[in-house]
Known about the structure:
By secondary structure, this protein is of the alpha/beta class. It has seven helices and nine strands.
Amino acid sequence: MSYAEITFKDKNPIKRWIHRQRLLSAIKLCRRLSQPIGAICDFGAGNGELCKLAAASYPEARIICYEPAPSLLAEARANLSNVSNVELCQDIGTVSPGTLDVVFCLEVFEHLPPEETTDALRTIFGLLKPEGTAVVGVPVEVGFPALYKGIFRMARRYGAFDANLRNVASSSFGFPPENRPISELAPGIRWHFEHTGFDFRPFGKILGGYFTLRKVSASPFPALGSLLMPEVYFVAEKTTEAPTHRGLSSR
């Protein structure tokens, strides 16, 4: 199955709608930034759907679609064939450090083992200009969202790591399983395919060690917060001062 077929073209209309809304949520957060935006990167772009929205929202900006997995990059190339202001990139080392105003990174960090998480955060930090912004979206896989997601997954593939009663129950009580399977997305790219086991709470603290967290926002309905919503966004600024959680917005 292609990336699009399990996200934006999934057979379930609610799942399709949620995946579309998470992209729109990211664009809305970007629009609220006060800084000029001339260069944007989608870090781990999948099939490039977010780049398409960013290109329409910022037609004068340089848009970089970074996707290291060859099969996903091929999807992005086809999806973006009629979009003129997007550059496809498989090697992030070809992008000059300190040149980007905004880096989006959606639905990536929940898949990365610890070493890869550190590498990605360091890379994103290096790519951004001083006072540049990272908009990072990750799923909520603890509490009530873990319960309704788990029920949905069990209905589709009961018994899988993310669809067995024990792991769904422990995640629902706020204790996600730690024995997450590791495979490869592509040769040399280690990857957790299942979301179950990821916890956005410690991840937020790790992110705050690199950036100043300016805002946390749930999606698709920010007012309902991460206790109910399936996705959470961190708006993180690259600053020269030590990162701090003071002044962090809850929505």
